[in-house]
Amino acid sequence: MNRTKENILIRLQHIDRRWIYLILWLVVMIPLLFPFKIQPRPTPPVTQLFNYIDTMPEDKALAISVDFTPDTRAELQPMVVSLMRHAFAIKRRVGILAISVYGLGLGEEAIQQVTEEFNSRARNHEDSVIYGEDYIFWGWTTPVLTVMLGMGERITNVFPVDYYGNKTETLPITKHIKNYDDIGVLVTIAASAIPRSWINYAQTQFGVHLSCGITAVSAADFYPYVNSGQFIGMLAGMKGAAEYEQLVRQRMEKNGMTWLLRNRGTEAMSSQTSAHLTIMAFIIIGNIAYFAVRRKRK
Amino acid sequence: MNIATDPWIWIGAILTLAIFSFLYKENPFYRIAEHLYVGIANGYAITFYWHRVLVPSLFDRVGAQTTPLSTKIWLIAIAIIGALYFTRFIPRISWLVRIPIAIVLGYASGASIPRAIDAEIIRQLKATIITRHSFANWQAGIWAVIILLGVIATVSYFFFSTERKGILKPLSYTGIIFIMIGFGASFGYTVMARISLFIGRLQFLLGDWLGLIK
Question: Do B196 and A196 touch (CB under 8 A)?
Protein backbone atom coordinates (compact mmCIF):
# COMPACT_ATOMS: atom_id res chain seq x y z
CA MET A 1 0.00 0.00 0.00
CA ASN A 2 1.53 3.32 -0.98
CA ARG A 3 1.57 6.35 1.29
CA THR A 4 -1.19 8.32 -0.47
CA LYS A 5 -3.54 5.36 -0.33
CA GLU A 6 -2.86 4.87 3.35
CA ASN A 7 -3.44 8.56 4.04
CA ILE A 8 -6.84 8.39 2.33
CA LEU A 9 -7.81 5.34 4.38
CA ILE A 10 -6.74 7.03 7.63
CA ARG A 11 -8.60 10.21 6.73
CA LEU A 12 -11.70 8.18 5.90
CA GLN A 13 -11.76 6.90 9.45
CA HIS A 14 -11.64 10.40 10.89
CA ILE A 15 -13.97 12.10 8.44
CA ASP A 16 -16.06 14.91 9.95
CA ARG A 17 -19.52 13.41 10.56
CA ARG A 18 -21.08 16.55 9.05
CA TRP A 19 -19.97 15.41 5.60
CA ILE A 20 -21.90 12.21 6.15
CA TYR A 21 -24.98 14.20 7.19
CA LEU A 22 -24.67 16.34 4.07
CA ILE A 23 -24.35 13.31 1.78
CA LEU A 24 -27.36 11.65 3.44
CA TRP A 25 -29.34 14.89 3.15
CA LEU A 26 -28.69 14.96 -0.61
CA VAL A 27 -29.27 11.25 -1.05
CA VAL A 28 -32.67 11.53 0.62
CA MET A 29 -33.67 14.87 -0.92
CA ILE A 30 -32.86 14.27 -4.59
CA PRO A 31 -35.06 11.16 -5.03
CA LEU A 32 -37.94 13.02 -3.35
CA LEU A 33 -37.70 15.73 -6.00
CA PHE A 34 -36.88 13.39 -8.90
CA PRO A 35 -38.26 10.00 -7.84
CA PHE A 36 -37.43 6.79 -9.66
CA LYS A 37 -40.14 4.18 -10.04
CA ILE A 38 -40.17 1.68 -7.23
CA GLN A 39 -43.04 -0.65 -6.44
CA PRO A 40 -42.93 -2.07 -2.90
CA ARG A 41 -43.80 -5.77 -2.99
CA PRO A 42 -46.17 -6.64 -0.13
CA THR A 43 -44.69 -8.97 2.46
CA PRO A 44 -46.78 -11.77 4.05
CA PRO A 45 -47.66 -9.91 7.32
CA VAL A 46 -48.99 -6.95 5.30
CA THR A 47 -50.90 -9.13 2.84
CA GLN A 48 -52.42 -11.14 5.70
CA LEU A 49 -53.87 -8.01 7.31
CA PHE A 50 -55.07 -6.64 3.98
CA ASN A 51 -56.81 -9.90 3.04
CA TYR A 52 -58.39 -10.19 6.46
CA ILE A 53 -59.91 -6.69 6.29
CA ASP A 54 -60.86 -7.16 2.66
CA THR A 55 -62.87 -10.28 3.40
CA MET A 56 -64.30 -9.15 6.73
CA PRO A 57 -68.10 -9.69 7.03
CA GLU A 58 -70.12 -6.57 6.24
CA ASP A 59 -71.45 -6.22 9.76
CA LYS A 60 -67.96 -6.12 11.28
CA ALA A 61 -66.16 -2.83 11.79
CA LEU A 62 -62.54 -1.84 11.62
CA ALA A 63 -61.22 -0.22 14.79
CA ILE A 64 -58.04 1.83 14.68
CA SER A 65 -56.26 2.81 17.86
CA VAL A 66 -53.99 5.80 17.27
CA ASP A 67 -51.38 5.03 19.90
CA PHE A 68 -48.47 7.10 18.66
CA THR A 69 -47.14 10.59 19.07
CA PRO A 70 -46.16 13.23 16.45
CA ASP A 71 -42.46 12.28 16.50
CA THR A 72 -43.23 9.03 14.65
CA ARG A 73 -45.88 10.56 12.38
CA ALA A 74 -43.79 10.02 9.23
CA GLU A 75 -43.83 6.24 9.65
CA LEU A 76 -47.23 5.68 11.17
CA GLN A 77 -49.66 8.27 9.85
CA PRO A 78 -49.67 6.76 6.31
CA MET A 79 -50.86 3.50 7.92
CA VAL A 80 -53.87 5.18 9.56
CA VAL A 81 -54.73 6.91 6.29
CA SER A 82 -54.51 3.77 4.14
CA LEU A 83 -56.42 1.63 6.64
CA MET A 84 -59.24 4.16 6.62
CA ARG A 85 -59.20 4.35 2.81
CA HIS A 86 -59.39 0.57 2.64
CA ALA A 87 -62.35 0.32 5.02
CA PHE A 88 -64.30 3.10 3.28
CA ALA A 89 -63.53 1.66 -0.17
CA ILE A 90 -65.10 -1.68 0.79
CA LYS A 91 -67.85 0.01 2.82
CA ARG A 92 -66.94 -1.12 6.29
CA ARG A 93 -67.61 0.96 9.38
CA VAL A 94 -64.65 2.51 11.16
CA GLY A 95 -64.17 3.39 14.81
CA ILE A 96 -61.15 5.39 15.90
CA LEU A 97 -59.75 5.93 19.37
CA ALA A 98 -56.53 7.20 20.86
CA ILE A 99 -54.65 5.70 23.78
CA SER A 100 -52.13 8.54 23.68
CA VAL A 101 -53.31 12.09 24.28
CA TYR A 102 -51.04 13.26 21.47
CA GLY A 103 -52.63 10.75 19.11
CA LEU A 104 -55.92 12.67 19.15
CA GLY A 105 -54.73 15.37 16.77
CA LEU A 106 -53.17 12.79 14.47
CA GLY A 107 -56.38 10.75 14.37
CA GLU A 108 -58.40 13.87 13.63
CA GLU A 109 -55.98 14.84 10.85
CA ALA A 110 -56.30 11.41 9.18
CA ILE A 111 -60.10 11.50 9.47
CA GLN A 112 -60.31 14.95 7.87
CA GLN A 113 -57.99 13.94 5.03
CA VAL A 114 -59.69 10.64 4.15
CA THR A 115 -63.30 11.78 4.56
CA GLU A 116 -62.53 14.79 2.37
CA GLU A 117 -61.03 12.49 -0.28
CA PHE A 118 -64.17 10.33 -0.35
CA ASN A 119 -66.82 13.01 0.09
CA SER A 120 -65.38 15.37 -2.52
CA ARG A 121 -65.64 12.56 -5.10
CA ALA A 122 -68.98 11.16 -3.95
CA ARG A 123 -71.67 11.18 -6.61
CA ASN A 124 -74.52 10.35 -4.24
CA HIS A 125 -75.35 9.78 -0.59
CA GLU A 126 -74.32 6.12 -0.87
CA ASP A 127 -70.78 7.05 -1.94
CA SER A 128 -70.17 9.55 0.85
CA VAL A 129 -68.89 8.73 4.30
CA ILE A 130 -70.96 10.21 7.07
CA TYR A 131 -69.93 10.82 10.66
CA GLY A 132 -71.94 8.82 13.16
CA GLU A 133 -73.13 6.39 10.45
CA ASP A 134 -70.02 5.18 8.67
CA TYR A 135 -67.37 6.19 11.15
CA ILE A 136 -66.93 7.45 14.67
CA PHE A 137 -64.08 9.10 16.52
CA TRP A 138 -64.42 7.89 20.10
CA GLY A 139 -61.54 10.05 21.25
CA TRP A 140 -59.46 9.43 24.33
CA THR A 141 -60.05 8.42 27.90
CA THR A 142 -57.99 7.12 30.78
CA PRO A 143 -56.73 4.80 32.23
CA VAL A 144 -55.55 2.45 29.50
CA LEU A 145 -56.67 -0.67 31.34
CA THR A 146 -60.23 0.61 31.68
CA VAL A 147 -60.38 1.38 27.95
CA MET A 148 -59.07 -2.01 26.84
CA LEU A 149 -61.22 -4.03 29.22
CA GLY A 150 -64.25 -1.72 29.17
CA MET A 151 -64.61 -1.81 25.39
CA GLY A 152 -65.24 -5.54 25.67
CA GLU A 153 -68.35 -4.87 27.78
CA ARG A 154 -69.85 -1.78 26.18
CA ILE A 155 -68.02 0.92 24.24
CA THR A 156 -70.48 3.66 25.19
CA ASN A 157 -69.66 3.10 28.86
CA VAL A 158 -66.00 3.82 28.13
CA PHE A 159 -66.71 6.68 25.74
CA PRO A 160 -70.02 8.24 26.84
CA VAL A 161 -69.20 11.22 24.61
CA ASP A 162 -67.15 11.15 21.42
CA TYR A 163 -64.22 13.39 20.48
CA TYR A 164 -66.60 16.11 19.27
CA GLY A 165 -68.74 16.05 22.41
CA ASN A 166 -71.71 14.08 20.96
CA LYS A 167 -73.37 11.51 23.19
CA THR A 168 -72.25 8.22 21.65
CA GLU A 169 -75.56 6.50 22.55
CA THR A 170 -77.39 8.89 20.21
CA LEU A 171 -75.25 8.09 17.14
CA PRO A 172 -76.67 5.48 14.70
CA ILE A 173 -73.29 3.70 14.36
CA THR A 174 -73.48 2.73 18.04
CA LYS A 175 -76.26 0.25 17.21
CA HIS A 176 -73.74 -1.61 15.03
CA ILE A 177 -70.60 -1.30 17.17
CA LYS A 178 -71.47 -2.14 20.76
CA ASN A 179 -68.34 -3.97 21.90
CA TYR A 180 -65.47 -6.12 20.61
CA ASP A 181 -67.97 -8.65 19.20
CA ASP A 182 -68.82 -6.13 16.48
CA ILE A 183 -65.21 -5.35 15.64
CA GLY A 184 -63.68 -7.47 12.88
CA VAL A 185 -60.16 -6.41 13.71
CA LEU A 186 -58.63 -3.76 15.93
CA VAL A 187 -55.40 -2.34 14.52
CA THR A 188 -53.17 -0.61 17.02
CA ILE A 189 -50.80 1.88 15.41
CA ALA A 190 -48.07 2.46 17.94
CA ALA A 191 -44.51 3.50 18.59
CA SER A 192 -44.35 1.87 22.01
CA ALA A 193 -45.20 -1.39 23.80
CA ILE A 194 -48.94 -0.59 23.72
CA PRO A 195 -49.71 -3.39 21.20
CA ARG A 196 -48.59 -5.85 23.87
CA SER A 197 -51.14 -4.39 26.28
CA TRP A 198 -53.86 -4.83 23.68
CA ILE A 199 -52.89 -8.52 23.47
CA ASN A 200 -52.67 -8.97 27.23
CA TYR A 201 -55.95 -7.30 28.13
CA ALA A 202 -58.28 -7.06 25.14
CA GLN A 203 -57.33 -10.30 23.38
CA THR A 204 -56.70 -12.57 26.35
CA GLN A 205 -59.93 -11.54 28.04
CA PHE A 206 -62.28 -11.01 25.09
CA GLY A 207 -60.61 -12.74 22.14
CA VAL A 208 -60.73 -9.68 19.89
CA HIS A 209 -58.78 -10.03 16.63
CA LEU A 210 -55.77 -7.75 16.66
CA SER A 211 -53.16 -6.43 14.32
CA CYS A 212 -50.54 -3.75 14.58
CA GLY A 213 -48.75 -1.02 12.71
CA ILE A 214 -45.49 -0.20 14.36
CA THR A 215 -42.29 1.75 13.84
CA ALA A 216 -39.43 -0.10 12.17
CA VAL A 217 -37.43 0.14 15.43
CA SER A 218 -39.88 -2.15 17.21
CA ALA A 219 -40.62 -4.47 14.29
CA ALA A 220 -38.25 -7.20 15.50
CA ASP A 221 -40.01 -7.21 18.90
CA PHE A 222 -43.42 -7.87 17.39
CA TYR A 223 -42.68 -10.54 14.81
CA PRO A 224 -43.14 -13.33 17.41
CA TYR A 225 -46.74 -12.20 17.93
CA VAL A 226 -47.41 -12.47 14.19
CA ASN A 227 -45.81 -15.91 14.17
CA SER A 228 -47.98 -17.04 17.08
CA GLY A 229 -51.13 -15.74 15.39
CA GLN A 230 -51.85 -13.22 18.14
CA PHE A 231 -51.58 -10.51 15.49
CA ILE A 232 -53.31 -11.22 12.21
CA GLY A 233 -50.69 -9.20 10.37
CA MET A 234 -48.30 -6.34 10.86
CA LEU A 235 -47.25 -3.15 9.10
CA ALA A 236 -43.63 -2.42 9.97
CA GLY A 237 -42.34 1.11 9.45
CA MET A 238 -42.69 3.29 6.41
CA LYS A 239 -42.05 0.32 4.12
CA GLY A 240 -44.98 -1.55 5.67
CA ALA A 241 -47.13 1.53 5.12
CA ALA A 242 -46.00 1.76 1.47
CA GLU A 243 -46.83 -1.92 0.89
CA TYR A 244 -50.32 -1.43 2.33
CA GLU A 245 -50.80 1.72 0.25
CA GLN A 246 -50.10 -0.30 -2.90
CA LEU A 247 -52.61 -2.99 -1.96
CA VAL A 248 -55.26 -0.38 -1.16
CA ARG A 249 -54.58 1.47 -4.42
CA GLN A 250 -55.10 -1.78 -6.35
CA ARG A 251 -58.31 -2.53 -4.43
CA MET A 252 -59.65 0.99 -5.04
CA GLU A 253 -58.87 0.75 -8.76
CA LYS A 254 -60.72 -2.57 -8.87
CA ASN A 255 -63.71 -0.82 -7.29
CA GLY A 256 -63.59 1.87 -9.97
CA MET A 257 -61.92 4.47 -7.76
CA THR A 258 -59.07 5.52 -10.03
CA TRP A 259 -58.22 8.51 -7.89
CA LEU A 260 -54.84 10.17 -7.81
CA LEU A 261 -54.22 10.17 -4.07
CA ARG A 262 -50.99 11.13 -2.37
CA ASN A 263 -49.33 8.05 -0.87
CA ARG A 264 -46.67 9.36 1.47
CA GLY A 265 -45.19 5.93 2.20
CA THR A 266 -44.78 4.95 -1.46
CA GLU A 267 -43.50 8.43 -2.28
CA ALA A 268 -40.68 7.93 0.24
CA MET A 269 -39.49 4.55 -1.05
CA SER A 270 -37.00 5.84 -3.65
CA SER A 271 -35.37 8.04 -0.97
CA GLN A 272 -35.39 5.15 1.50
CA THR A 273 -33.73 2.82 -1.02
CA SER A 274 -31.07 5.41 -1.93
CA ALA A 275 -30.34 6.09 1.75
CA HIS A 276 -30.02 2.37 2.52
CA LEU A 277 -27.62 1.81 -0.36
CA THR A 278 -25.54 4.80 0.76
CA ILE A 279 -25.39 3.57 4.35
CA MET A 280 -24.37 0.10 3.17
CA ALA A 281 -21.61 1.70 1.09
CA PHE A 282 -20.47 3.73 4.13
CA ILE A 283 -20.32 0.58 6.27
CA ILE A 284 -18.33 -1.33 3.63
CA ILE A 285 -15.89 1.56 2.98
CA GLY A 286 -15.43 2.15 6.72
CA ASN A 287 -14.68 -1.52 7.36
CA ILE A 288 -12.27 -1.79 4.43
CA ALA A 289 -10.41 1.30 5.66
CA TYR A 290 -10.30 -0.02 9.24
CA PHE A 291 -8.97 -3.47 8.35
CA ALA A 292 -6.52 -2.17 5.73
CA VAL A 293 -4.95 0.31 8.17
CA ARG A 294 -4.86 -2.28 10.96
CA ARG A 295 -3.07 -4.80 8.69
CA LYS A 296 -0.57 -2.18 7.64
CA ARG A 297 0.20 -1.24 11.26
CA LYS A 298 0.77 -4.88 12.21
CA MET B 1 -42.88 25.98 -6.82
CA ASN B 2 -45.94 26.60 -4.66
CA ILE B 3 -44.81 27.96 -1.30
CA ALA B 4 -47.25 27.54 1.60
CA THR B 5 -49.14 30.59 2.82
CA ASP B 6 -50.35 28.95 6.03
CA PRO B 7 -48.42 30.59 8.93
CA TRP B 8 -48.51 27.31 10.93
CA ILE B 9 -46.63 25.51 8.16
CA TRP B 10 -44.04 28.29 8.21
CA ILE B 11 -43.65 27.97 11.99
CA GLY B 12 -43.27 24.19 11.61
CA ALA B 13 -40.69 24.61 8.85
CA ILE B 14 -38.61 27.18 10.75
CA LEU B 15 -38.63 25.00 13.90
CA THR B 16 -37.67 21.93 11.84
CA LEU B 17 -34.69 23.79 10.38
CA ALA B 18 -33.77 25.06 13.85
CA ILE B 19 -33.67 21.46 15.15
CA PHE B 20 -31.68 20.27 12.11
CA SER B 21 -29.12 23.04 12.70
CA PHE B 22 -27.82 20.87 15.59
CA LEU B 23 -26.31 18.58 12.96
CA TYR B 24 -23.85 21.37 12.17
CA LYS B 25 -23.21 22.33 15.78
CA GLU B 26 -24.94 23.30 19.02
CA ASN B 27 -26.53 26.76 18.63
CA PRO B 28 -29.19 29.05 20.18
CA PHE B 29 -31.80 28.30 17.46
CA TYR B 30 -31.65 24.62 18.30
CA ARG B 31 -31.93 25.41 22.03
CA ILE B 32 -34.99 27.60 21.49
CA ALA B 33 -36.73 24.93 19.39
CA GLU B 34 -35.86 22.19 21.90
CA HIS B 35 -37.18 24.14 24.90
CA LEU B 36 -40.30 25.15 23.02
CA TYR B 37 -41.00 21.50 22.22
CA VAL B 38 -40.63 20.35 25.82
CA GLY B 39 -42.65 23.27 27.19
CA ILE B 40 -45.51 22.98 24.71
CA ALA B 41 -45.74 19.19 25.03
CA ASN B 42 -45.95 19.44 28.84
CA GLY B 43 -48.31 22.39 28.77
CA TYR B 44 -50.61 20.58 26.35
CA ALA B 45 -50.65 17.41 28.45
CA ILE B 46 -51.29 19.23 31.74
CA THR B 47 -54.17 21.35 30.43
CA PHE B 48 -55.58 18.33 28.59
CA TYR B 49 -55.59 16.17 31.72
CA TRP B 50 -57.10 19.02 33.73
CA HIS B 51 -59.98 19.64 31.32
CA ARG B 52 -60.59 16.06 30.16
CA VAL B 53 -59.93 14.09 33.34
CA LEU B 54 -59.98 16.10 36.56
CA VAL B 55 -62.82 18.49 35.75
CA PRO B 56 -65.37 16.00 34.29
CA SER B 57 -64.44 12.96 36.37
CA LEU B 58 -63.81 14.63 39.73
CA PHE B 59 -64.84 18.28 40.16
CA ASP B 60 -68.06 18.13 38.11
CA ARG B 61 -69.17 14.88 39.69
CA VAL B 62 -68.41 15.96 43.24
CA GLY B 63 -70.17 19.27 42.63
CA ALA B 64 -73.26 17.73 40.98
CA GLN B 65 -76.35 17.44 43.17
CA THR B 66 -77.40 14.25 41.40
CA THR B 67 -74.26 12.37 42.49
CA PRO B 68 -75.02 10.11 45.52
CA LEU B 69 -73.20 11.00 48.74
CA SER B 70 -71.40 7.63 48.88
CA THR B 71 -69.95 8.21 45.38
CA LYS B 72 -68.81 11.69 46.41
CA ILE B 73 -67.03 10.28 49.46
CA TRP B 74 -65.28 7.68 47.29
CA LEU B 75 -64.22 10.29 44.76
CA ILE B 76 -62.86 12.63 47.43
CA ALA B 77 -61.01 9.79 49.19
CA ILE B 78 -59.40 8.66 45.90
CA ALA B 79 -58.46 12.27 45.06
CA ILE B 80 -56.78 12.64 48.47
CA ILE B 81 -54.84 9.39 47.95
CA GLY B 82 -53.78 10.58 44.50
CA ALA B 83 -52.68 13.93 45.92
CA LEU B 84 -50.29 12.04 48.22
CA TYR B 85 -47.94 11.83 45.21
CA PHE B 86 -47.09 15.46 45.91
CA THR B 87 -45.77 14.61 49.38
CA ARG B 88 -42.49 13.78 47.64
CA PHE B 89 -41.79 17.50 47.77
CA ILE B 90 -42.05 17.55 51.60
CA PRO B 91 -39.17 15.41 52.98
CA ARG B 92 -40.75 14.98 56.44
CA ILE B 93 -43.83 13.18 55.10
CA SER B 94 -42.45 11.96 51.79
CA TRP B 95 -42.97 8.33 52.88
CA LEU B 96 -46.70 8.83 52.29
CA VAL B 97 -46.06 8.60 48.56
CA ARG B 98 -45.77 4.85 49.02
CA ILE B 99 -49.52 4.58 49.57
CA PRO B 100 -50.67 5.59 46.04
CA ILE B 101 -47.69 3.78 44.49
CA ALA B 102 -48.60 0.58 46.36
CA ILE B 103 -52.23 0.83 45.24
CA VAL B 104 -51.31 1.40 41.60
CA LEU B 105 -48.68 -1.35 41.64
CA GLY B 106 -51.01 -3.83 43.30
CA TYR B 107 -53.85 -3.09 40.91
CA ALA B 108 -51.66 -3.16 37.80
CA SER B 109 -49.83 -6.34 38.84
CA GLY B 110 -53.04 -8.15 39.70
CA ALA B 111 -54.56 -7.22 36.38
CA SER B 112 -51.44 -7.88 34.31
CA ILE B 113 -49.64 -10.95 35.65
CA PRO B 114 -52.23 -13.67 34.92
CA ARG B 115 -52.94 -12.25 31.46
CA ALA B 116 -49.25 -11.76 30.65
CA ILE B 117 -48.50 -15.38 31.57
CA ASP B 118 -51.14 -16.51 29.13
CA ALA B 119 -50.38 -14.04 26.31
CA GLU B 120 -46.61 -13.76 26.54
CA ILE B 121 -45.49 -17.17 27.79
CA ILE B 122 -48.05 -19.86 27.06
CA ARG B 123 -49.11 -18.54 23.63
CA GLN B 124 -45.47 -17.95 22.64
CA LEU B 125 -44.45 -21.43 23.78
CA LYS B 126 -47.35 -22.93 21.84
CA ALA B 127 -46.09 -21.11 18.73
CA THR B 128 -42.77 -22.93 18.96
CA ILE B 129 -44.26 -26.41 19.21
CA ILE B 130 -43.93 -28.36 16.00
CA THR B 131 -46.97 -30.33 14.94
CA ARG B 132 -48.10 -31.99 11.74
CA HIS B 133 -49.73 -28.68 10.71
CA SER B 134 -46.34 -26.95 10.87
CA PHE B 135 -45.42 -28.85 7.73
CA ALA B 136 -48.46 -27.80 5.72
CA ASN B 137 -45.94 -26.55 3.18
CA TRP B 138 -42.19 -27.11 3.11
CA GLN B 139 -41.30 -23.42 3.70
CA ALA B 140 -43.45 -23.20 6.83
CA GLY B 141 -41.90 -26.47 8.03
CA ILE B 142 -38.33 -25.18 7.65
CA TRP B 143 -39.17 -21.94 9.48
CA ALA B 144 -40.87 -23.85 12.29
CA VAL B 145 -37.73 -25.97 12.79
CA ILE B 146 -35.48 -22.89 12.69
CA ILE B 147 -37.65 -21.11 15.26
CA LEU B 148 -37.60 -24.13 17.57
CA LEU B 149 -33.83 -24.45 17.25
CA GLY B 150 -33.39 -20.70 17.78
CA VAL B 151 -35.50 -20.68 20.95
CA ILE B 152 -33.71 -23.70 22.48
CA ALA B 153 -30.25 -22.41 21.55
CA THR B 154 -30.90 -18.86 22.79
CA VAL B 155 -32.40 -20.06 26.07
CA SER B 156 -29.43 -22.39 26.59
CA TYR B 157 -27.05 -19.42 26.16
CA PHE B 158 -28.72 -17.76 29.15
CA PHE B 159 -28.47 -20.91 31.27
CA PHE B 160 -25.80 -19.91 33.78
CA SER B 161 -26.29 -22.56 36.48
CA THR B 162 -23.74 -24.97 35.07
CA GLU B 163 -20.49 -24.91 33.10
CA ARG B 164 -20.81 -24.84 29.29
CA LYS B 165 -19.71 -28.40 28.57
CA GLY B 166 -21.07 -31.26 26.49
CA ILE B 167 -24.25 -30.49 24.55
CA LEU B 168 -24.58 -27.10 26.25
CA LYS B 169 -21.41 -25.81 24.56
CA PRO B 170 -22.46 -26.09 20.88
CA LEU B 171 -26.02 -25.14 21.81
CA SER B 172 -24.99 -21.92 23.53
CA TYR B 173 -22.68 -21.02 20.64
CA THR B 174 -25.58 -21.55 18.25
CA GLY B 175 -27.56 -19.31 20.61
CA ILE B 176 -24.97 -16.55 20.13
CA ILE B 177 -25.43 -16.77 16.36
CA PHE B 178 -29.19 -16.40 16.72
CA ILE B 179 -28.76 -13.49 19.14
CA MET B 180 -26.35 -11.74 16.75
CA ILE B 181 -28.75 -12.19 13.84
CA GLY B 182 -31.47 -10.72 16.05
CA PHE B 183 -29.28 -7.72 16.91
CA GLY B 184 -28.43 -7.23 13.24
CA ALA B 185 -32.10 -7.28 12.27
CA SER B 186 -32.92 -4.80 15.05
CA PHE B 187 -30.10 -2.50 14.03
CA GLY B 188 -31.12 -2.62 10.36
CA TYR B 189 -34.69 -1.77 11.30
CA THR B 190 -33.44 1.08 13.52
CA VAL B 191 -31.50 2.61 10.63
CA MET B 192 -34.59 2.28 8.45
CA ALA B 193 -36.73 3.98 11.11
CA ARG B 194 -34.38 6.94 11.54
CA ILE B 195 -34.14 7.47 7.80
CA SER B 196 -37.94 7.29 7.56
CA LEU B 197 -38.30 10.04 10.15
CA PHE B 198 -35.85 12.20 8.23
CA ILE B 199 -37.74 11.53 4.99
CA GLY B 200 -40.95 12.57 6.76
CA ARG B 201 -39.45 15.93 7.68
CA LEU B 202 -38.10 16.45 4.17
CA GLN B 203 -41.53 15.60 2.73
CA PHE B 204 -42.87 18.36 4.94
CA LEU B 205 -40.19 20.88 4.02
CA LEU B 206 -40.10 20.14 0.29
CA GLY B 207 -43.79 19.28 -0.14
CA ASP B 208 -46.01 21.04 2.38
CA TRP B 209 -43.77 24.09 2.81
CA LEU B 210 -42.03 24.70 -0.51
CA GLY B 211 -44.48 22.82 -2.72
CA LEU B 212 -41.71 21.15 -4.69
CA ILE B 213 -43.05 17.59 -4.45
CA LYS B 214 -45.71 16.93 -7.07
Answer: no
